[in-house]
Design goal:
The complex is a heterodimer of chains A (306) and B (548). With 306 residues, chain A is mainly alpha-helical. Chain A has helices at residues 2-29, 34-39, 45-55, 61-73, 87-122, 127-141, 144-158, 170-200, 203-210, 215-244, 247-252, 258-268, 271-299. In chain A, helix 5 (87-122) packs across helix 8 and helix 12 packs antiparallel against helix 13 (271-299). The N and C termini of chain A lie close together (6 Å). In chain A, 78% of the residues lie in helices and 0% in strands. In chain B, 30% of the residues lie in helices and 24% in strands. The N and C termini of chain B lie far apart (60 Å). The chains are: A mainly alpha (306), B alpha+beta (548). Chains A and B meet through helix 2, helix 3, helix 5, helix 6 and helix 7 of A and helix 1, helix 6 and helix 12 of B.
Chain lengths: 306, 548
């Protein structure tokens, strides 16, 4: 297992290097000069040139990359052009908030998506199945922007249970968390349903039933565990998606996480922040993939990584 | 029938599932010249500042360092902490803030600034002539140059005459120097704090303004507290705490206002103005700002180099119809600037389709089907728009159909703001260096606001030799002479002659086609009192109070 882990981590090195190169290139070749944006229309060309020199953007592109790479190796992600603060400091502030939001979304997904999927499979073709599938369809198809506004209108304005914007208390997490989790909940519900239906047709389930096991034991002891592998894999991958996919949700709810920081930085051409956040998101994906594999081996002892 | 019933059951089940889960999650408790003194409005605050004023805005500050950033969203906040030497009243009258007045000495180059006595920075350091000298040098002489360096005219010498008097000797004569110092691009920063914190100044900025800095959480809020030692006790802060929240989504801002989570919102969408106006709980402030949206034209473009074509484009625009469509987003623009700004005169062409047709005929563009053509080429104008102003795209769609009636094709090219800026600048720079490299862009939309009370602020760039800022690629020595006269320290009558030349230049050349003056739409709860908006969007919150 340790060898497998080491192997996967080694594999991650070229992936992360690729991410660094691509992110650096994309930010530099996207039209728009941070010095121009920072200086504004009123600035003289001399002032713009001065800002460019201060930011190190007057150096050849290769030199800029080498400097950036060296800094990353020293865990120095640079300094935001606009916010005037270290990128690591900005990430340290925004990441816990987004992580918390993603966690709420994930918990909502697990608590609602999996039971609904099981129920739907067990009560196949009943009204419960229809309702669960209908809800799942709504979950995967409703745009987060619309769902967010709708939930603000209902739960902030009409019934006034939750604040309409901001962060800081558990109440601030509920609406954005649930909105963020709607898509993955629908996805997980449908996946759980289909995998359980597949498993229920397997020979060993028929054997279990023939042995006289109760339907409950057959379902929870045999079927569910075997159906859990793809579900857990998807859940883990969703976590990565949730971290990077918070831009719209954070915007609607004015929630100050990495999604909004990323969007703002892209518009302002704040290269160090964009690069730092893309690096973070990529690392999250890599880590989550490894964790999903490890979780699969934990659930199914037949899976062994050597 | 059965099918319908089953569907209803599905919906009920889904609703119960969703509501139940959300409920389970969420339920639970929980004298000299020009400037008069600054008493804009006397609002003595018996008992000192009380309460919290919370303002929701669509954008966050870019920085809390006025030397580095001065876009509107930023200066609305930095202006509470820092102040300029001069200010502009809502009528755009120049008034003293940290300066009590100015005089132009006999050499016509040296401005003597008289500073206010007894003013201190939030750090406790005195505001004096030395601080002003430091700010000038920091802005204009220290690399990297600060944000106001492009606006403030270069000076040859600056000298602290005594504790409260500064002489600034300009390199060239300038008659709007004091107006320029009133723009929120030139605020006085506390030298001792800046020297102490350097790049980290934005973590604890210090000015002389009515509010002190408390905290800034990017993309969430800026929190300020009343400066109880403010230099003008009769017109100081009336609230103890001032919070700027960032709520990007307009609908969410309105809900936050209705919920009482915030007291005031900026960027009220035009379509929501009537609804809130009819609600007794709120006051809507909808007024023309000092920002004009116009279509800029590249005179180096093969099609648009013919002045008759540019003039025809202006005649083919019915701006009355445009403002009917965009509603509370704007009022009709009649020139580059707006009434109230010094030097403004109408310079837009009247809507006249027949005149447009005659001009295009004379230029050789003949109708061929829906559009006009010349030598087999369609009369087509491609307009870049970043859609940064409310109503911008809608106005273009209206003009598109109007131009079509004149046989002109408008192609709207949406482009992200930063990319548009880069393209215009890069291509203008290349054309300046090598006139054979004609910029590929034809036209663009821009929304430019006046922050000095006079139109020179937004009319300089068409001058000859503006390089990367001269997007129109226009050069007319007569226009330059007019502009220079308008900015010179001669009599106002003579300066007005200069402004008239500028306006005539815009009319004749048709390099900028004014569309609409942007309306500023704000709403506030009834309990907010004492707020007087300024069309130039300089946010003066002195004397604004909540409750009672």
């Amino acid at each position: 297992m340790l060898r497998y882990l080491a192997h996967r981590l080694l594999q991650a090195v070229p992936v992360m290097f690729g991410v660094l190169v691509v992110t650096f290139a994309v930010t530099r070749f996207t039209p728009g000069d941070p010095a121009e944006i920072m200086a504004g229309l009123e600035a003289t060309p001399e002032a713009v040139a001065g800002i460019r020199a201060e930011l190190g953007l007057d150096k050849p592109i290769v030199t800029q990359f080498v400097i950036y790479l060296g800094a990353v190796l020293r865990v120095d992600l640079g300094r935001s052009y606009f916010l005037g603060r270290d990128v690591t400091e900005l990430i340290r502030e925004a990441l816990p908030r987004t992580a918390l939001l993603a966690l709420v979304a994930l918990v909502f997904t697990a608590l609602v998506g999996i039971p609904a999927g099981i129920l739907s499979a067990v009560r196949r073709d009943s009204w419960v199945d229809g309702a669960a599938r209908g809800a799942a369809l709504v979950g995967v198809s409703i745009p987060p922007f619309f769902a967010g506004l709708l939930s603000i209108l209902v739960f902030s304005y009409y019934v006034r249970w939750f604040p309409s914007f901001g962060s800081g208390t558990w109440k601030h997490l509920v609406l954005p968390g649930v909105t963020l989790g709607l898509f993955s909940t629908g996805l997980v519900m449908r996946l759980t349903r289909s995998t359980i239906l597949d498993v229920l047709n397997e020979d060993y389930i028929r054997t279990a039933r023939a042995k006289g096991l109760s339907e409950r034991s057959t379902l929870y002891v045999h079927a569910l565990r075997n159906a859990a592998i793809p579900v857990v894999t998807i859940l883990a991958l969703q976590l990565g998606g949730l971290l990077s996919g918070t831009v719209l949700t954070e915007t609607v709810f004015s929630y100050p996480g990495i999604g909004r920081l990323l969007a703002r930085s892209i518009f302002e051409r704040d290269y160090p922040v964009v690069q730092g956040l893309i690096l973070l998101i990529s690392m999250t994906y890599v880590a989550v993939n490894v964790l999903a594999d490890l979780a699969a081996s934990f659930i199914d002892p037949r899976i062994r990584y050597e | 029938m059965r099918r319908t019933t089953t569907r209803v059951r599905w919906w009920r089940a889904s609703a119960v599932l969703l509501f139940g889960t959300w409920y389970a999650w969420g339920c639970g408790g929980d004298g000299t010249n020009g400037a008069r003194d600054s008493a804009l409005a006397t609002t003595g605050v018996p008992g000192g500042p009380t309460g919290t004023l919370t303002i929701a805005r669509p954008q966050d500050v870019r920085d809390i360092n006025p030397l580095r950033q001065a876009n509107n969203a930023t200066s609305e906040v930095t202006y509470q902490i820092h102040e300029s030497l001069f200010g502009l009243t809502p009528d755009q009258e120049l008034v003293g803030l940290l300066a009590t007045g100015w005089e132009l000495l006999d050499d016509s180059l040296t401005y003597r600034l008289h500073l206010r006595e007894g003013v201190r920075f939030h750090s406790g350091e005195p505001f004096n002539a030395e601080a002003v000298v430091w700010n000038f040098e920091k802005q204009l002489k220290t690399e990297p140059l600060a944000i106001g360096s492009g606006l403030v005219p270069p000076y040859a010498e600056i000298q602290a005459v005594d504790e409260l008097t500064v002489d600034v000797t300009l390199e060239e004569r300038n008659g709007v120097f004091a107006n320029i110092l009133a723009a929120p691009l030139f605020m006085m920063v506390d030298p001792s704090r800046y020297e102490e914190l350097g790049e980290e100044y934005n973590k604890n900025p210090s000015g002389t303004g009515p509010f002190r800095f408390v905290s800034w959480m990017p993309d969430q809020s800026v929190v300020l507290e009343a400066n109880t030692d403010y230099w003008d006790p009769d017109n100081g802060p009336a609230v103890a705490r001032l919070v700027f929240e960032v709520i990007p989504e307009a609908a969410a801002r309105i809900i936050a206002l209705r919920n009482g989570e915030v007291d005031m919102i900026f960027g009220l969408p035009a379509e929501d103005v009537p609804t809130l106006e009819s609600d007794d709980d709120f006051t809507v402030l909808s007024y023309p700002s000092m920002r004009v949206m116009y279509i800029g034209l590249n005179t180096a473009d093969p099609t648009l180099s013919d002045v008759r074509v540019r003039q025809a484009l202006g005649h083919a625009m019915d701006r009355d119809q445009v403002v009917q469509v965009i509603g509370a987003n704007g009022v009709r623009a009649d020139g580059i600037g707006m009434p109230g700004a010094l030097g403004f005169e109408p310079s837009a062409r009247a809507f006249d389709m027949a005149a447009a047709g005659r001009l295009l005929d004379a230029a050789g563009w003949r109708m061929a089907g829906e559009y006009r053509e010349k030598a087999g080429r369609r009369l087509s104008v491609r307009i870049m728009t970043a859609n940064t102003l409310p109503g911008e795209t809608e106005s273009l769609l209206v003009i598109q159909s109007q131009w079509k009636n004149a046989g002109i094709e408008m192609i709207i090219e949406p482009i992200e703001s930063g990319a548009r800026f880069a393209r215009l600048t890069d291509e203008a720079r290349r054309h300046q260096a090598d006139p054979t490299q004609v910029p590929s862009y034809q036209a663009w939309t821009a929304g430019e606001g006046i922050r000095t009370g006079e139109i020179g602020y937004i009319t300089e760039r068409p001058k000859c030799g503006q390089g990367e800022r001269g997007w129109e690629r226009y050069c007319d020595p007569a226009f330059d002479e007019g502009f220079d006269l308008s900015q010179s320290p001669v009599s106002l009558d003579e300066r007005l002659e200069g402004y008239a030349v500028i306006n005539q230049g815009f009319f004749e050349s048709a390099i900028r086609l004014p569309v609409f003056v942007v309306r500023s739409n704000k709403a506030m709860a009834r309990h907010v009192q004492g707020f007087v908006p300024n069309p130039n969007d300089a946010l003066d919150l002195r004397g604004v109070r909540v409750g009672g």
